[in-house]
Amino acid sequence: MSVYNDSFSIPVSLPGKATLPLHGVKIVAGDIGGTKTNLALYHATRNKLELIGETRFASPDYNSISSMLSDFIKASGSISPDRICLGVAGPVIDGRAELTNLNWTIDSDELMKAFRVDHVGMINDLEAIAYGLANLGADELINIREGNPLARGNMAIIAPGTGLGEAGLYWDGK
User: Fold this and answer.
1) What is the largest CA-CA distance in the chain?
2) N or C: which end of the chain has fewer CB within 10 A?
3) How many CA atoms lie within 13 A of 82 on its CB side?
4) Alpha-carbon distances, residue 12 vs 49, 70, 139, 166 (angstroms)
5) Domains defined for the chain, CATH in brackets
6) What angle do CA 8, 12, 16 make, to 5 degrees?
7) What are the strands of the beta sheet with 49-58, ordered from one edge?
8) CA-to-CA distance for 89 and 87, rounded, in angstroms?
9) Can you spell out the DSSP letters for the chain?
10) What is the pLDDT of residue 14?
11) Nearby residues of 62 by Cβ (< 8 Å), 6 or more positions away
12) Is 46 left (phi over 0), alpha (psi -120 to 50) or beta?
């Protein structure tokens, strides 16, 4: 998989896709922010990602991610997810995140137990955006300043929102 621009591409490794069971899994994916949270339910197989449903929540209306996830799962027809994948607005250390602009602590082990899922993946939201770049084609990118990109150059992502996030992709030679 590669990140594309008009004149260069960067291969990005996305581990785990090959280990999906043939029948697929149900995944709750979320972008967790201080102001809003977007949650989506997908059916994922090795070859296809199918959106089942999605909802936007006002984060301050909830006292925890667990209560929000419970409401989302109920609204999605009580389909039990096999995995949960979250991009959160704040640092993630050893499977725990303290959100920068919301009084929440998210613990992946607690979510695994509460929702009886096989796996909870959690990374910083801007790190998630950096990985998401791998799925964009050249026609989905907007050039805001002409330059001379390197064929195997690095990329930076900066996103002002409730806070200011940043992430990067670097070329490691592979």
Assistant:
1) 50
2) C
3) 10
4) 18, 33, 19, 18
5) 1-174 (3.30.420.40)
6) 160
7) 49-58, 36-44, 25-32, 83-88, 119-124
8) 7
9) -EEE-SS-EEE---TTGGGS-TT-EEEEEEEE-SSEEEEEEEEE-SS-EEEEEEEEEEGGG-S-HHHHHHHHHHHTTSPPPSEEEEEESS-EETTEEE-TTSS-EEEHHHHHHHHT-SEEEEEEHHHHHHHHGGG--GGG---SS-----TT--EEEEEESSSEEEEEE-----
10) 45
11) 68, 71
12) alpha
Paired sense of beta strands 25-32 and 155-160, if any: unpaired
* 168, two tokens: 């990067």
Around Cβ 24, how many Cβ atoms within 10 Å? 17
Cβ 154 vs Cβ 170: under 8 Å: yes
Higher pLDDT, 109 or 136: 109
Q: Tokens for 155?
A: 């990329």
What pLDDT score was predicted for residue 17?
54
pLDDT band at 67, cuts 50/70/90? very high
Q: What is the pTM of this model?
A: 0.79
Phi then psi dihedrals of residue 79, to 5 deg: -75, 120
The mean per-residue pLDDT over the stretch 120-128 comes to: 91
- Burial of 146 per CB tally in 10 Å (0-12, 13-18, 19+): exposed
